[in-house]
Hints:
The protein has about 300 residues and is mainly alpha-helical. The chain has one domain. The chain is about 70% helix and about 0% strand.
Amino acid sequence: MWxxxxxxxxxxxxxxxxxxxxxxxxxxxxxxxxNTLLWVYAIAAGLCFAVSTxxxxxxxxxxxxxxxxxxxxxxxxxxxxxxxxxxLMACLVTFWAIRLSYNFARRGGYSWxxxxxxxxxxxxxxxxxxxxxxxxxxxxxxxxxxxxxxxGLILLFTLPALKAMESNVPLGIYxxxxxxxxxAFVIMEYIADNQQYQYQEExxxxxxxxxxxAFHKVGFTHTGLWAYMRHPNYTAEQSVWIVFYLFSIIATxxxxxxxxxxxxxLVLLFKGSSDFSEEETSKKYPxxxxxxxxxxxxxxxxxxxxxxx
Length: 309
């Protein structure tokens, strides 16, 4: 686990530096805007670390993951003088934020006591591992990865809006096309999350009543979009931010620019996250190993999953 964490921390530093050095230098306005964003990041990450350490609930970053990209995007829009393309990008991020926050809220992620709420199942599992038994190791993991890395990644994948501030290209048909694709992926993520939510809610209801049907004894969501991809919600989430990066290409006519760093790092994060969740799910449900063999991780490259073949 430490190797994975160190690799992700290394990439968080290396990828932005490398991509930045192979691109056009930032304007004064971009530097000023980035400085404001970094202050917001530092305060948010610091608060997440402090609150999670005090309360022993390490899902504080999860609470702001779906919220803080919208303020980042609107700060950039404000600094740009509400340039049309960046306002469109900010509106799209806000749409994404509302949808994802709703999904997190209905699963018990928020509470009027903001420091409470359901904790992601992965953090207790990780904390129980031998390599995290020394308190200083878990505190370091929380500071550098849970709070520092994840909050930094959130900032990075919103920065194509900052790159788009360089543009002299007017808003046009390509921007509107990307907006439609962006919205389509958000809807796809909503459908996937809803399918998972309904399946899990019904499964636990039946478990509570002591009478679980065969469909829910499988234990994991395996129909709908989940019959074709093991993580359709992750597929949509990664696609959303890749599409968001494409706005910077339209704005600057530079196909490979430094703002790609966030999308690349998000793909790496979801690879590691899905590895971990699949390992844990395989321990719980015998049929999941068959599911792993038959269904593609992020793309429908294999065949539709069936429990009876």
